[in-house]
From TrEMBL:
Keywords: Coiled coil, Plant defense
Annotated coiled-coil segments of the chain: 28-62
PANTHER family membership: NB-ARC DOMAIN-CONTAINING PROTEIN-RELATED, RPP4C3
InterPro entries, A to Z: AAA+_ATPase (IPR003593), NB-ARC (IPR002182), P-loop_NTPase (IPR027417), Plant_NBS-LRR (IPR050905)
Residues in AAA+ ATPase domain copies: 177-295
One MF annotation (Gene Ontology) recorded for this entry: ADP binding
Official protein name in the record: AAA+ ATPase domain-containing protein
Domain of life: Eukaryota
Entry keyword annotation includes Ribosomal protein: no
Pfam families hit by this protein: NB-ARC (PF00931)
Organism whose genome encodes this protein: Lactuca saligna (Willowleaf lettuce)
Length: 354
């Protein structure tokens, strides 16, 4: 009985030793094969890295934030690919040296490189698996705001000049027979402010609201980029979209920038602002609305509201002196030399320049 047990134990030990010896021999025998597998997996990782880099480039162009970890994954992939290339070159040189000895006496070298090839291959496979997520998504899309949030919370109830115009614009936007509304008035009267207030008021009527500042130097490509997603929602999903084109200085051909218009307006409404009535009429708006200058009292109330201050330090009489056309930003520019209002002037001018 004891002898039988001993034989079983000895048999298991022999099997283990044989398996271990076979594994070590396989390392030597399959050195070239293992190196080829490593080279193949390194190329696969490089191809994956290139594809992900293309996605990263596209995301950056769209102003999207990259997912946490994607850049670290890319950096790690570059490092490991570089290490593998160096290793494979070293392994190839070692084999040349070894085989030139005839017969090879440096079996330990083959064993070493073969085993290292397997370990590195396993690491590359794991890194490829970790990167599969990034092949489909590398960024967090920057959502196009459903409405502009820069100024829409300012209360216009006690500013009759704006309140009446705001109501007229909203009624025009809600009118199904009207597809394009124009707002015009001299610089500084608050056209941009009103456009943003309109966006806040009608936000629930549209799947998306796009706000685009056109300005004197028209950047067609930038406008096309901003309009692209909205156009897809209009054409493919048949959703209602409001496109606000702010600060237009000359006639803009909407079809050139990808905005549905005319008989092909579909579900697209357009609100544009300009200093020139002629520009609005030249773009064939259905309703043209004039924004009159604020009274001096309204201008001062709105100024304090925008800069979020209740100060009465600036004499009201200065308003009449500094901006006869009731454009408060002109008044602020005159006072910009006073450091105590630099911050306030920046907020005001940024809000009321158009």
């Amino acid at each position: 009985m004891g002898e039988e047990a001993t034989n079983i134990v000895v048999g298991k030990i022999v099997d283990l030793l044989f398996s271990s010896a076979k594994r070590e021999i396989d390392y030597v025998r399959n050195c070239t094969k293992n190196a080829d597998i490593l080279k193949n997996e390194a190329q696969k990782l490089k191809d994956m890295s290139d594809r992900i880099q293309q996605r990263i480039n596209a995301a950056k162009e769209n102003g999207e934030a990259l997912l946490a970890g994607v850049q670290n994954w890319m950096d790690k992939a570059d490092i490991e690919i570089s290490k593998v290339e160096e290793f494979l070159e070293e392994e190839a040189n070692a084999k040349k040296t070894c085989f030139n000895l005839r017969p090879c006496v440096n079996l330990s070298s083959l064993h070493h490189y073969s085993k290292m090839s397997i370990n590195k291959t396993l690491f590359l496979l794991q890194h490829q698996e970790d990167g599969q997520t990034y092949e489909s998504c590398v960024s967090i899309p920057t959502p196009t705001p459903r409405f502009v949030d820069l100024y829409q919370t300012k209360n216009l109830d006690d500013i009759d000049t704006h309140k009446l115009v705001l109501r007229e614009i909203i009624e025009a936007i809600k009118d199904e027979s009207i597809k394009m509304v124009g707002i015009y008035g001299s610089g500084g009267v608050g056209k941009t402010t009103l456009a943003k207030e309109v966006a806040a008021e009608v936000k629930n009527l549209f799947a998306e609201i796009v706000f685009i500042t056109v300005s004197q130097t028209v950047d067609v490509k930038e406008i096309q980029k901003n309009v692209e997603k909205a156009a897809k929602r209009i054409i493919i999903n048949k959703e209602k979209v409001l496109i606000i084109l702010d600060d237009i200085w000359k006639k803009l051909v909407l079809s050139d920038v990808g905005i549905p218009c005319g008989n092909n307006h579909m579900n697209c409404k357009i609100l544009l602002t300009s200093r020139s009535r002629n520009v609005c009429e030249g773009m064939n708006v259905d309703r043209n609305i004039c924004v009159n200058i604020l009274t001096k009292k309204e201008a001062w109330v709105l100024f304090k509201r925008i800069v979020e201050t209740s100060t009465e330090e600036t004499p009201y009489a200065l308003l009449a002196f500094f901006f006869p056309h009731n454009a408060p930003w002109q008044f602020i520019k005159q006072l910009e030399a006073q450091s105590k209002i630099n911050y306030l002037s920046g907020k005001w001018i940024g809000s009321m320049q158009t």
